[in-house]
């Protein structure tokens, strides 16, 4: 039985919900076969989010970690390839913090690549009937802060872990006028179950050799 920790964020930016936490909760409530899944909600706050992630890892002792965040405007589940060592907040976090051009980890490496098989994960989500793509940027807000921070935790404190980050679209209730892409959290959760199953059975070094690159 593979132990999985899945995280989502609290609402931010004036929203009432965060689909990352909605989807994470649904996956934990009905996990894929062969996986024991625990969900943890992270605060949308620089620094505090990584403290909460570390605490959840210590409490649950997972084999695999998938952190989720909201990416409004994206049409599907996007599996992040890399987190970069910079915080550059366009808006304040939920505690009013707004770091500009500050490192996530002082003197840390420039970036950490996901230790999940990102292309196999994307293929699995698509096979489940949910739109998905590889993403080469997690932004520079708290999502990237956690994506990079997870990589640093794996490299320095939890070397037995594999983990990565994925973004999910807005929920329909966040775009009631239908002017932007949205997916029901239940649909997202269905795709994430396939993603986790693929991640659990596929080492990153055995990822699919298929084109998922971008020109910009």
UniProtKB/TrEMBL annotation:
Question: Which sequence ranges form a coiled-coil region, renumbered to this chain?
Answer: none
The protein's annotated catalytic reaction(s) are: Release of an N-terminal pyroglutamyl group from a polypeptide, the second amino acid generally not being Pro
Q: Which GO terms describe its molecular function?
A: pyroglutamyl-peptidase activity
Whether Cytoplasm counts among this entry's keywords is: yes
- What PROSITE patterns does the annotation carry? PYRASE_CYS, PYRASE_GLU
Q: What protein name does the entry list?
A: Pyrrolidone-carboxylate peptidase
From the Swiss-Prot or TrEMBL record, state where the protein is found. Cytoplasm
Q: Which organism is it from?
A: Streptomyces anthocyanicus
Q: Which gene encodes it?
A: pcp
Q: Which PANTHER family match?
A: PROTEASE FAMILY C15 PYROGLUTAMYL-PEPTIDASE I-RELATED, PYROGLUTAMYL-PEPTIDASE I
HAMAP family found in the cross-reference section: Pyrrolid_peptidase
Locate the active site.
80, 143, 167
Q: Where does this chain mainly localize?
A: cytoplasm
């Amino acid at each position: 039985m593979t132990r999985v920790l899945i995280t989502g964020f609290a609402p931010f930016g004036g929203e009432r919900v965060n689909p990352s936490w909605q989807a994470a909760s649904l996956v934990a409530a009905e996990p894929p076969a062969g996986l024991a899944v625990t969900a943890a909600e992270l605060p949308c706050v620089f620094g505090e989010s990584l403290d909460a992630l570390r605490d959840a890892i210590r409490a649950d002792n997972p084999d695999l970690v998938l952190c989720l965040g909201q990416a409004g405007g994206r049409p599907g589940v996007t599996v992040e390839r890399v987190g970069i060592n910079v915080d550059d907040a366009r808006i304040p976090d939920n505690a009013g913090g707004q770091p500009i051009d500050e490192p996530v980890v002082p003197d840390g490496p420039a970036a950490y690549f996901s230790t999940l098989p990102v292309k196999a994960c994307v293929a699995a989500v698509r096979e489940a009937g949910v739109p998905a793509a590889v993403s080469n940027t997690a932004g520079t807000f708290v999502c990237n802060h956690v994506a990079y921070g997870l990589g640093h935790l794996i490299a320095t404190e939890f070397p037995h872990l594999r983990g990565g980050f994925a973004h999910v679209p807005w929920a329909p209730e966040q775009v009631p006028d239908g002017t932007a892409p949205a997916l029901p959290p239940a649909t997202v959760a269905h795709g994430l179950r396939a993603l986790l199953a693929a991640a659990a059975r596929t080492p990153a070094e055995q990822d699919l050799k298929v084109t998922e690159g971008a020109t910009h």
